[in-house]
Amino acid sequence: MDQSADVVIVGGGVIGLASAYALACDGLRVRVLDRRAPGREASWAGAGLIAPEAETPGPSPMVQLRSRSARLYPLWADQLRSLTGVDVGYRKCGGVDVAFTPAEDDELRSAAGVWRSQGVAHERLAAADVTRIEPALGPEIQAVYYLPDRAQVRNPWLIRALIAAITHKGGSIHAGAAVEDFELERGRVIAVRSSAGRFRCSSVVVAAGAWSGALLETLGVRIATPPNKGQIVLLRSDRRLLGRIVEHGKNYLVPRDDGRILVGATEADAGFDRMPTEAGYRALIWEAHRLCPVLRQAEVEATWAGLRPGSIDARPYLGIAPGLANLVIAAGHNRAGLQLAPATAEEVVDLVLGRPPRIELRALAVDREPAGDADLAAFRS
Ligand SMILES: Cc1cc2nc3c(=O)[nH]c(=O)nc-3n(C[C@H](O)[C@H](O)[C@H](O)COP(=O)(O)OP(=O)(O)OC[C@H]3O[C@@H](n4cnc5c(N)ncnc54)[C@H](O)[C@@H]3O)c2cc1C
Question: In whole angstroms, what is the distance from residue 306 CA to residue 303 CA?
């Protein structure tokens, strides 16, 4: 059966859903197709850390995208709550970034230099202030920086709110609709073919996470979106043991309001396998106890893993597919898709409508050369 839409969005993770929501807010008829239930891949598995806002982001498109998202998050949280009644769990809980060794302390000092130049609020804490801000930190920690604007979101709640908001705005979400290929006419996509039927459309957004590369190959568009497996352990405690996000390199603890604490996250090249491993579990628990010994009192409630969508470098792809004027690609957000979703969605709308982008997108073009490591998508690590 044929169905139609202004825009078909392939992939119902946070990037696809946020884009669909933003497009629907602009009055477009959207359909989101997901081969599973939407939001059950990386966007469910993630921890929900949100970068702080930079007051003077400078020319870097990544810092701009991150900072714009940081500014949009509280607005989105309010809008989504009033539209759907769902609290997305956005909280500016603050965070501490810690070092165990002099070398790590040096790294933090240079990170602090970057934060200063970008206008990211931060403060190096004296020992007495550490006890005041986050008393549960471990005794081996040698240096602590406090970032008051570090925030978090409950990603499964965000997914639920986005789905409800898209529906409320007249869009539709098709679960179990695996996109197989695309119909082309004179350099444009005119329809998307899926296991749930054919969808005619004026524009397409491909936001299929780590599966985007393989899907786009059917169009001759070559982009690498290698899966980057990440594991998390969820701890539970009767009382709140931590108040702030704690970060140590690529490891972190994220305290939820209900006393639960997420311990994240591993990184592994394991293909499309998303089974949690014993080694990953042990490494995370060891790190959690070192960062915060009081967590030995907490029970392990669950562990899971998800597949972050990688790219050729540390940046996502955000742009028009070469040679296909009405196909937008928004994928490869790796460790930062939750934090970058609102600003990514804004850019997707501009690309679909042919409006000038708010951020210089050349550095994120689908056919770019790989960028150096300096311009990371994620705020830290
Ligand atoms: C352990 C872990 C911790 C993380 N922590 C954070 C964090 O704290 N902060 C942060 O910002 N980010 C974090 N991330 C990263 C973040 O989760 C991802 O960057 C983000 O979820 C990517 O979203 P996405 O929509 O691109 O991909 P996904 O969520 O993977 O969604 C892609 C969707 O496309 C669908 N799909 C695939 N192929 C097809 C097809 N052919 N047809 C139809 N549908 C298809 C899939 O079913 C899926 O639902 C974390 C990730 C992990 C794994």
Answer: 11
